[in-house]
Specification:
With 559 residues, the protein is an alpha+beta fold. It contains 16 helices and 18 strands. The chain is elongated, with a radius of gyration of 43 Å. The N and C termini lie far apart (120 Å).
Length: 559
């Protein structure tokens, strides 16, 4: 047929415009000669397609001739029952969602394990540096109770300590009135004439000195074995009455601590001692956070030293939380990150041999647990460590030991929980996991008065004047005045006593003695760590800016 005889039936319909447009877009492999009718048909197709495109997007503007011939979009049917990963095409740059979550979880676990390993290395590395003490406030970091004080100075005698009036030693409320005032002033005039320039200040100074040398105490009675009945004898009734008085004194200390009327007190038993600190005690620097801590009546703290497994188990089973001392390794090995692969392999072999030898020596006939169960135990322990629990794995237990067996209780909830559990334990009340209680109740000691307590004053063992060590007859030979005191001296009392002595003495030295049975490691939670103050030397440094008198403090620490 000729081009002019093409029938209208062979012309494409308006509905086939999209198919025809797609056919026109595709360039033929060969270039054919087109007739005039082909050109007219192409022009109509362009006009029809341009009108359709302008109706779909009004803001697109007029399209050029090259933009009019584009491929029609393909209709995609999305099945919503299929997963998203099967509906969206992925390439190498896009990971599967499941694999992405698994990779993120694996990275989180590795990060937590590295953080736990770093924390373990920091806590297990022993602290070798000696604490630096510079002022009298640092004496508050030694929580131990001193049992003996030895004062030495070349500037004056301590004979006045023997002449303290009884009204001062008894802590009477009207000590500074009437005849008692005259008696104190007469003693100051004879023994301490330097203070008589201002009698009122002299009386105040003497009263504060007496407060530093006195304390209140209640001895613990024996707990009767027979219960109290209506037919009990007089001795049994008196014995139970003494137990009731001790209970009232114990509860009064707790109440006075909450009210801020007692700064600190001690519970001294046969096997351990508890030091409770409240408003007025401190400050000291925490060995963990290196922050200054100052207890209050609303946020007290307490330390129990030493502790045994039975006592710790009793506290745990009665839901009393506590903190243990930092863990230090017996050796100081290099961290794993600083070892080579060969050194790591050698260390692992040595640890395996040591662990195997210890297991065989401790349990020669016991069968070793399966490897799968041990791995499960280690995994559970590591999981507890990740969530914040303080856990020591069996592999670490053979190489590390705690610095001290002391237990630390911080906050009103823990301190009052400790006191409640100890009270029931002392009074032979049934408690879960409680060890056998002692036959005698512990001694209660405080620097201020409490219920049923009797006042005690330091005993002056010796006051003497001797020549300092050196060659006799030389010009450098000096006289030393010495005083030795015995009693119970709390940290705050020792600090105030040394600060008050600066009024009389330009320089002096003080040697302190503690009861080792209850004080080893008691400072593990302060800046002193495993040390305690053995001696203090104070000397005037002259006047500073504004006429303020400066003082130099030197401390000698012991372990």
């Amino acid at each position: 047929r000729s081009l002019g005889s093409i029938s209208p039936k062979t012309m494409p319909l308006a509905t086939d415009l999209a198919d025809t447009a797609s056919a026109i877009v595709e360039a033929p492999p060969k270039r054919f000669r087109r007739s005039t009718s082909d050109l007219i048909r192409e022009q109509k197709l362009r006009q029809a397609f341009s009108a359709n495109q302008s109706q779909r997007s009004l803001d697109a503007g007029s399209l050029s001739k090259s933009e009019a011939l584009v491929a029609a979009p393909i209709d995609l049917t999305v099945a919503y029952v299929d997963p998203i990963s099967s509906q969206v095409p992925t390439d190498d740059r896009v990971l599967d969602s499941t694999k992405s979550f698994q990779a993120a979880e694996k990275g989180r676990v590795e990060h937590l394990e590295l953080a736990a390993e770093k924390e373990r290395q920091q806590t297990t590395r022993p602290t070798k540096s000696t604490p630096c003490l510079q002022t009298s406030e640092d004496l508050s970091g030694d929580l131990s109770i001193k049992t003996s004080i030895r004062l030495t100075t070349p500037h004056g005698s301590f004979a006045w300590l023997r002449r303290l009036p009884a009204v001062l030693r008894s802590q009477a409320g009207d000590a500074m009135k009437g005849p008692a005032r005259d008696l104190v002033l007469a003693m100051c005039k004879d023994s301490l004439p330097k203070l008589m320039t201002d009698p009122d200040k002299a009386l105040l100074w003497m009263e504060r000195i007496a407060n530093c040398l006195t304390w209140y105490q209640l001895e613990g009675p024996s707990v009767p074995t027979a219960p109290l009945t209506s037919g009990a004898s007089l001795e049994e009734r008196l014995a139970w009455r003494r137990v009731e008085e001790w209970d009232e004194a114990f509860r009064s200390l707790d109440a006075l601590l909450r009210q801020g009327l007692v700064s600190t007190y001690a519970i001294v038993s046969e096997r351990f001692a508890v030091i409770v600190c409240g408003q007025g005690s401190g400050p000291w620097t925490s060995s963990r956070s290196n922050e200054t801590q100052r207890p209050t009546h609303a946020a007290p703290c307490a330390v129990l030293c030493p502790s045994v497994d039975e006592l710790r188990r009793m506290l745990q089973e009665n839901h009393v939380s506590f903190e243990v001392a930092e863990i230090a390794s017996q050796e100081d090995p290099a961290p794993p990150s600083e070892l080579t692969l060969e050194e790591k392999r050698i260390r692992q072999e040595q640890e395996a041999e040591e662990e195997g030898g210890k297991t065989q020596l401790a349990i020669p006939f016991a069968t070793e647990p399966p490897a799968s169960s041990m791995e499960q135990i280690r995994s559970d322990l590591r999981e507890l460590r990740r969530i914040g629990e303080k856990v020591v794995t069996p592999d670490e237990q053979a190489r590390i030991t705690p610095l001290s067996s002391a237990l630390w209780f911080e906050g009103a909830w823990r301190v009052h929980g400790l006191l409640d559990v100890l009270r029931q334990h002392f009074l032979v009340a049934p408690l879960p996991g409680a060890p056998p209680s002692a036959t005698r109740l512990p001694r209660l000691v405080a620097p201020t008065t409490f219920c049923h307590a009797s006042v005690k004053c330091a005993e002056v063992l010796k006051t003497q004047t001797v020549k300092a060590s050196g060659t006799p007859g030389t010009p450098d030979e000096r006289v030393q005045h010495i005083a030795e005191l015995s009693g119970n001296f709390f940290p705050g009392q020792v600090r105030r006593l040394l600060e008050l002595l600066r009024v009389l003495l330009p320089s002096f030295e003080c040697n302190l003695v503690t009861e080792q049975r209850h004080c080893v490691g008691i400072n593990a939670f302060t800046q002193l760590g495993m040390h305690h103050v053995e001696a203090v030397k104070c000397e005037s440094a002259g006047s500073g800016l504004g006429g303020t008198l400066g003082w130099m403090w030197e401390f000698k620490l012991g372990t």
